[in-house]
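Project outcomes to date are best conveyed with an example. Our students and postdoctoral researchers have been running inverse folding experiments weekly, and each run begins with a structure described purely in tokens. The record below, which covers 112 residues, was selected by the lab manager from last quarter's runs and is presented without edits.
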């Protein structure tokens, strides 16, 4: 059974946003799936691996972070559905296969 985790890679420049990505692991093979979502380090909770909405940010940023949280929940649910379907098919698959199906569905607009 494959696992999915949300990860944050901070920018090397302290004033720039870092990137969120999904890590899919299956049979010890790791695949990183880019999300396009960007956060500042102060908006990421390292211990809980989730977004933090600071109280002192403007409304536009607050809306972006809220929308990003919603999309992450949807993305992870979609990834878990893909994994479940592949498991039910009872045929071999790889983390790359999961990524392929995920990106194809995102590009076809099935997600949102």
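After processing, the design step wrote out the following sequence:
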């Amino acid at each position: 059974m494959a696992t999915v985790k949300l990860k944050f890679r901070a920018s090397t420049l302290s004033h720039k946003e870092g990137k969120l990505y999904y890590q899919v692991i299956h049979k010890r093979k790791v695949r990183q799936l880019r999300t396009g979502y960007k956060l500042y380090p102060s908006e990421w909770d390292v211990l809980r691996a989730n977004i933090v909405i600071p109280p002192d940010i403007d409304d536009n940023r607050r809306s972006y972070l809220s929308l990003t949280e919603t999309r992450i929940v949807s993305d992870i649910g979609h990834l878990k559905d893909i994994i479940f379907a592949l498991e039910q098919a009872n045929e071999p698959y790889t983390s790359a296969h999961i990524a392929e199906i995920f990106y194809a569905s995102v590009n076809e607009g099935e997600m949102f």
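The longest helix spans residues 59-89. The radius of gyration is 15 Å. The training component of this project remains on track.
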